[in-house]
Automatic annotation (TrEMBL):
Residues 414-583 form the Helicase C-terminal domain. SUPFAM superfamilies: Helical scaffold and wing domains of SecA, P-loop containing nucleoside triphosphate hydrolases, Pre-protein crosslinking domain of SecA. It is an enzyme of class 7 (translocase). It is found in: Cell membrane; Cytoplasm; Membrane. The lineage of its organism: Bacteria, Bacillati, Actinomycetota, Actinomycetes, Pseudonocardiales. Residues 92-250 form the Helicase ATP-binding domain. This is Protein translocase subunit SecA. It comes from the Bacteria. Its EC number is 7.4.2.8. Residues 9-581 form the SecA family profile domain. Part of the Sec protein translocase complex. Interacts with the SecYEG preprotein conducting channel. Has a central role in coupling the hydrolysis of ATP to the transfer of proteins into and across the cell membrane, serving as an ATP-driven molecular motor driving the stepwise translocation of polypeptide chains across the membrane. Monomer and homodimer. Part of the essential Sec protein translocation apparatus which comprises SecA, SecYEG and auxiliary proteins SecDF. Other proteins may also be involved.
Amino acid sequence: MAALISRVGKRLRRIIQRPGSVELTRYEALLPAVEKLEPELEKLSDEELTERAGKVRESTGFGDDQLVEVCALGREAARRALGERAFDVQVLGTMGLLTGHVVQMETGEGKTLAGALAAAGYALRGKRAHVVTVNDYLARRDAEWMGPVYALLGVSVGWVEPAHSREDRKEAYAKEVTYGAVAEIGFDVLRDRLVTREEDLVQPAPEVAIVDEADSVLVDEARVPLVMAGSIDHSDADEEVANIVRRLRLGLHYETDSDGRNAWLTTAGASVVEKSLGGIDLYGDSGSDRLAAVNVALHAHALLTRDVDYLVRDGKVQLINAARGRVAELQRWPDGLQAAVEAKEQVTATDHGEILDSITVQALLARYPEVAGMTGTAVAVAEQLREFYKLEVAVIPPNTPNVREDLADRIFASPSQKLRAIEEEVRTVHETGRPILVGTQDVAESEELAEKLAKVGLESIVLNARNDAEEAAIIAEAGKKGAVTVSTQMAGRGTDIRLGGTDGESREEVVELGGLHVIGTARYPSSRLDGQLRGRSGRQGDPGSAIFFASLNDELVLSNAPDIPEGIDSDEETGEITDPAALRQINHAQRVAEGVDLEIHRNTWRYTRLIERQRGDLLAHRDKVLRTTLAAEELEKAQPEKFAELKEKLDDEARLEQISREVLLYHLDQLWSDHLAYLTDVRESIHLRALARETPLDEFHRAAIPEFHKIIPEAATRAAKTLEEAEITDDGIDLADAGVRRANTTWTYLVHDNPFDSDFEQTVKKVRSMIRRK
């Protein structure tokens, strides 16, 4: 009876406290069977263990018996290879992953091992698994760290990273388990879509994806499409306009909206710009070209902040991934904006080009027939995971109860008063010897805080986008006695903070002092990010505490809930606010921000869903061209005499087919690129349709569908024309001379979608400057 009551209680707690969570009773019932196999497996030699794992491959189906066998084998392999016996909660996590769920496991509970055992389990079922990480460091670290476990199970493992050549990538993807950052895997998909020889493909058909930091990858990253661009020439940044805009002043010459997403010239600003440009009319036909340059320069000047949105390092503008506080390697804004920021910062202009292809993270993961994931904060986005990925969350209980003390937020009237209180908090806690981790919002804030702490004799180690290459070593030592670490976004850092540091020398003393103390300098736009920062303290039952400081003038509040209720008083001396209404206002602002992000995700998917369907149809045709003789057949039919001449000169059926293939694929790819550019233009203007009470999304579809259907026949027509006009020599055709020129360098774009505002509101913002001018 007691056991029944316990089970009912667990179920009720999950229903009440954990919406979107999977019932774990089935998995918990299998744990005794996993444990029962341990003595038997311990007696096996390494070779016998590998052989037994191989027998799983011979199984038909994958029921509970196979689930138990895989988990028991994995536990024994980890014990031998790593000296770590997987906890029951890690086994539960492995089971959740092997049955296609997102498992929520708290920080420090061993997600890396659970993910590796699940990946091995999929491999033993004959399915190739990609373990998708948030950065390249974690991909290599986890593949190498878990390598001995995979070896004992007879499973091959590899990883991909930016430095890898095409052959390195082919070799890595040929393994049964491949680790890679989501961007790296995504860009390999995009690069494969541009190859002209079948043997140049690096990725096999996708089968299983296990996503680490699943909420970050599947929710946060889903708002940023991965875009591949090809180099054409140097960008033509308008330096004259940049110099003019640099002199404009907020409130006098231009204004911005409260959420910092739009900027526009005032009447006075437009007059200044027109006079500086020689008396042109920006809003007349003659000034339309300069108006576009002015708008993009104003965006760069007013809305993008150095050391917050980007760094200037080694003479280059480098974007910062706001979700992770890291430099977004090889990423840039769409060309006009990138060039405008480079002109603003007076650095050398980089090449610009055209978009060749793009893919959203959601579409990337949709390629895999089976998807699972793991993270410490999944419940908060359970509804999104279900809505966008049809994934359910399995909440895994901690191995040891969490005893971290989450202190009440301290709220202040102004950011400066808040900063003084943070300094005092750091000083007071540091005097006790407890290690401290301070989580900031951006690079500029982390460096400002570190400087202020240094002035009062508190030396700290700073972790931000400037030194993210050393992050693992910095984080690993953040638990040492007396350590003060200041870091930007901690999500996806992937390294545990062990009390006492990596050597554990002062562990017992730090435990006695109360463990790691975490300080948040402001609430994040998402409660998940708050939870991720708090979760750095109190790992595996360690003592610890966490506290957030906030201000009613923080960016979160000003952007999302600026209308502060009247009557909220603060302490005259410290500026601290104890009125509960202040906390309600901050919580409200955070909920609004979360709503913004959700709507951005939804709207991105609404518009890209049609594009993904079109891309799928085109890729099917492209794949047929790549793998068959279709191109040669079509060109011979369209240009029989020219084709016969080429055939006579070459006297080589296989080279002939390849030339035909390259010509047709070039035009297919070029037309797809043109189609993407067309759709971008449509998106830019589609909101004007709201003024006519038309539905913008319907109008987008109406414009996109007929244009897409022209691509395949037009590619065939252009390919035939290329063959008709090409000069045929004894060596065949000089493809470059015939106009078949592909980009020789590529890079990635960082694209921000801003569909939160209603269509009507976006329209108003776009025409507001013109209305004011009139």
